[in-house]
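> call design_seq(struct)
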């Protein structure tokens, strides 16, 4: 949706497509995505045999047949001869691997991503993660002198940092919110803390460097997968929005946005050899991509009090009208425009819909009729594993429950 809403060509999801995840770990994300999108063929790559054993066990239970897992290092995988992919995803990988492995990942993307193919890359970002560099270094060095597994070491080393933070001096005096950030981190699962902070190669990135690096491979930055990154009116002060209009380069614009938002983690979307939608293709997008309502939508409630969309005062009534319409049927942007009878362009209405998607109240539907082939088995497995996700095949996604 993000790619087409920005006016660019994207992979055709009505036909079979190919999806690769680099560093898939236990494959939770891949399981959910594949279950909700039976037309796709999904491949997950990871070097960790134990994690892939868990992933494979999940397949045996759910009987999802459009996933395969490959145990290999990135260097080994680079030599695999595979058909190219429409999507390549790397989540929780780039900021935690060595520069050598980053180079190999870039080569894999260059080799295997199709024209107009989409790359999703998440990474720790400056300036939000800048204050954590010293924290991570202390945790890593402390862990080397501790007993136990990595999860236990992560908890012990984080406790040491928090003890220092209690004095509220130095770094903790200058960065007033750091103690709160570490307190929230301590509520996370120990294995996640270990993954995020006990890597030898942990290093936040500047978005400008990432955009330039992938640009050398013919990949153009399109926007953020988190949607809020694409809604400047909602996420940036008016003064910053004015400054952005004076900046000629995307690298400058994204750096300013990161500073203004104090970005901790970015979820970037790139397109290879990007081409713009022509007039007919854009009209087709507006008329064929339909939206439906999600279970969390606040139907019949006063959205002026809503913690997510309530601050956009001039659009409250429009939000409420859209939710009422989508409660009865799925509708495209063009169909919504005809029913709403507001003096909005289709592009402006798309931005309104993006806000509701970001809020978790609506979502684009599958582009074609899709049987609920794996949904029931997937959701039962999620429940058995005590993982708070639910697969929604109708929308080709999963939601937290």
């Amino acid at each position: 949706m993000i790619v087409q809403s920005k006016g660019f060509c994207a992979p055709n999801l009505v036909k079979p497509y190919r999806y690769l995840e680099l560093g898939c770990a236990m494959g939770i994300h891949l399981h959910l995505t594949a279950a909700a999108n039976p037309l796709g063929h999904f491949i997950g790559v990871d070097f960790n045999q134990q994690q892939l054993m868990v992933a494979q066990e999940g397949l045996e239970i759910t009987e999802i047949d459009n996933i395969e897992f490959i145990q290999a290092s990135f260097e080994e995988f680079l030599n695999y001869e595979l058909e190219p992919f429409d999507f390549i995803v790397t989540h929780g990988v780039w900021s935690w691997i060595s520069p050598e492995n980053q180079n190999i990942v870039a080569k894999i993307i260059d080799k295997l991503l199709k024209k107009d193919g989409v790359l999703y890359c998440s990474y720790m970002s400056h300036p939000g993660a800048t204050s954590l560099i010293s924290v991570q270094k202390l945790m890593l060095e402390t862990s080397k002198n501790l007993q136990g597994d990595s999860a236990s070491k992560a908890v012990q080393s984080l406790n040491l940092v928090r003890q220092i933070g209690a004095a509220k001096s130095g770094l903790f005096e200058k960065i007033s919110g750091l103690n709160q950030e570490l307190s929230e981190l301590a509520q996370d699962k120990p294995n996640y803390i270990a993954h995020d902070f006990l890597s030898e190669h942990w290093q936040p990135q500047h978005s400008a460097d990432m955009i330039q690096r992938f640009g050398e491979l013919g990949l153009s930055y399109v926007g953020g997968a988190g949607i809020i990154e694409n809604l400047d009116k909602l996420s940036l002060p008016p003064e910053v929005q004015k400054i952005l209009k004076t900046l000629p380069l995307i690298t400058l614009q994204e750096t300013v946005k990161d500073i203004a938002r104090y970005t901790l983690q970015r979820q970037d979307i790139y397109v290879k050899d990007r081409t713009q939608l022509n007039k007919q293709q854009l009209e087709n997008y507006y008329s064929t991509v339909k939206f439906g309502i999600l279970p969390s939508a606040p139907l019949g409630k006063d959205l002026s009090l809503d913690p997510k969309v309530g601050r956009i005062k001039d659009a409250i009534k429009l939000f409420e009208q859209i939710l009422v319409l989508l409660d009865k049927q799925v509708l495209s942007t063009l169909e919504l425009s005809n029913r709403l009878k507001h003096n909005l362009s289709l592009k402006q209405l798309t931005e309104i819909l993006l806000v509701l998607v970001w809020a978790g109240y609506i979502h684009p539907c599958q582009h074609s009729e899709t049987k609920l082939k794996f949904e029931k088995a997937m959701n039962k497995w999620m429940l058995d594993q005590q993982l708070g996700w639910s697969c929604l095949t109708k929308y080709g996604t999963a939601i937290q429950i």
